[in-house]
Design a protein that fits this description.
Blueprint lengths: L17 H4 L8 E5 L27 H8 E3 L6 E11 L2 E10 L6 E2 L6 H13 L22 E7 L22 E8 L17
Antiparallel strand pairs: 1-6, 2-5, 3-4, 6-7
Length: 204
Amino acid sequence: MSIPTRGLIFKDSVDKVRDTVARPSLDTFYEVQFSFGGENLSSPWLSSLSSIGKNRTQGADFKQKMSLLCTQAEIPGTSYLTTQAVGHHQGIQEVFPTLRQFPPLNLTFYVDADHLILEVLENWMTYINPLSSKKKLNSYGRLNYPETYKERIHVSKFERDTFLRGNDFGGNPRATTKASQYEFVNVWPQNLQSLRISYGQSSI
């Protein structure tokens, strides 16, 4: 493709590109679903959460409450590990991709007043590496098998008009946007960040 000439540079009014630039994606329309246990609900670490009552989840399932309190998520990015080739062409250093890698998924939650979110994440991490005894100074830890604690998480990104149906005010079929869905497999918590608590002005 050649360099654009004066005749190829866009010089028309903004009205001709208004429909294109006026519909950016908004980052506040999304949903995170926690498919813990899969279809048969056989994850062993979930057994410790069987005693959670409906009063702590406000009548909902604890996975649904986690989905509602997940205040930030990330659409996965990607990058390449590269290698350099020097000397194939005189005076030129070339860079080629080797392995493709994905960054970890970061989720941010509101901590509910019942501390249910903390309990779920702490129990999950405790099952991965349980201690022989929590009260002995010489307690030791061992790791469980990955198949018993790895789960699936689904992130859906949609827009304000994704689920609208029917016709618009002009009687034309309403144009809707498509939802993008991502599935994360073999997920397990790697880092639970510390929470700051202090006297002073209250914050969430």
